[in-house]
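thread: overnight batch results

M.L. [08:02]
morning all. the overnight job finished for the chain we discussed friday. pasting input first so we're all looking at the same thing
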Amino acid sequence: MKRFLTPELYALVAASALSHFWRLFTPNVVVFDEMYFKHFAGHYLDRTFYFDVHPPLANLVFAAVARLAGVPAATLLGDAPVPVLRVVSAICGTLLVPLGYVILRQLGAARRVATLGGLALLFENALLVDTRLTFVEPQIIAAGLGALSVALAARAAAGARRWMLVAVSGVFAGMAFSAKWTGASALGIILAIWAFDAWRARRLAKRAIGEAGVLVAVPAAVYVATFAIHFALVNHMGVGQAYMSGRFHRTLIGDPLFDSTVHMSLLTKIVDAHDAMRRGNRFLEYVTHPAASPWYTWPIMKHPIALWENDQVEPGHKQIIVLLGNPVVWWGALIGVVGAAVWLLRRAELASPQRFGLCVLVGAFALNFVPFIFITRLMYLYHYLFALVFGVLAAAYWWGIVARWNDDETPLFHFASRRSATLYWALVALIVVSFAYFSPLSYGWPISQRAFDNRFWVLNPRL
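M.L. [08:03]
and the structure it wrote out:
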């Protein structure tokens, strides 16, 4: 692991922390869906039941932060903003950049290629916006990337250390799944890598079978434990319990049907909750929202989402936060994923490590994007962010192969030719300039109406 602790990695961590924590509590208002998550956290402190269509881990984390920060349940359940909860997302967002760098290195990318991938994640506006607010996606993506990185580390380990890393990878994968079902993609990626290794060995050794068992049992244990904590905390009558069965009502203190002699097992409660979650998601199939968008518009970022706007700004100006990506990164990632997929399908001349690296990243992109094609409920642009991260990493890896940036390891920024160096730094400059141009909409800085209009010369924002 020592070879990954490079000067550029430390610089990426510092820059990522600065970009995520700088004026994190501004604006000091409730932004978009933050209201839901602070309310959910409040129910844990108030011990009152609530219903959500997603598993409870992310809300439990928000509740833990609120408890540590001394935020009372009444504040969480009220209309007042609680910006301290954004610290969770900011920490996760800070980690995405170094995790992207490390994963590229683990897959055989040269330092300059891994740095390019890290910079692209650092200067991606939509990821920055989403990871500076009290949202769930940052936890899913950070846990998913952590699971993959640890799984890749396990491939290079042996003995007890390998078993420990496999188990830790399962914990992170379970955390991603326990925050939102879409986080199951992390486990899917890890199991696909395990299957490849087992196939390459041409036999299922006892160790491989045991590892498969760990990779199934540990995430399942994390998932069940999350619900166990959830039910233990929200055991009083609250809101949304109409989704639950009559028998479940009898277990809620204060409910008119409460019966102290009725006891449901944890498994029964989980089954009951999942039936309610299924029906809740079905209900969302018939709901509309102006910010929603179909899956096929996400890769080109057709419908950015306005998350907050200050209506007290002076005339002729606009102060707004928009979930709007960096077009250079967003569209460059799409080109890179398509290019990498074509190379793999055409069986291009690639070294074995390069082929494996591209397969992992393109496959991870597909696992985080393709399933949405078959989902009929309401969806938003932020559902694409996990796929985008892998798209960025796949694009950096592919461009590294095409431009020959991946041919040698050291020194860091020594290139085979002046043309190669010019292309690299031009791409970095484009990413940074585009990020800076759209950053007023990421941080919510006041700009003129004309400047705002100029930033939407192609896109159709849901404003």
